[in-house]
Amino acid sequence: MDEPRKLILRCPDCSSRLVIDGITGEVLFHEKAKTRPAGGKQFEELLADLEREKIQAEEVFAREVAAHEDRERLLEERFRQALARAEESADDGPPPSPFDFD
Question: What are the phi and psi torsion angles at 35 (to 5°)?
């Protein structure tokens, strides 16, 4: 018996291996290219990237802490202003009942 013809190709872009049926042209199998651990970077590069990420995270954290402290101050100031307005306005008793408007 004649075996079906298979073509084995290597993708020039991603270096993956493709097995293609010679008659129909369909991809029968796809094997991804093996990549080096850590994307092929050297250990020193990985450490430098990690240090940059650490510094960036610390900066973001410091900004958020400052914003949170400022937010607490602003909320406290607004609360005091609302409390002062509430004390200045005279309270005439309970609000009018909606049934009294008829």
Answer: -110, 150
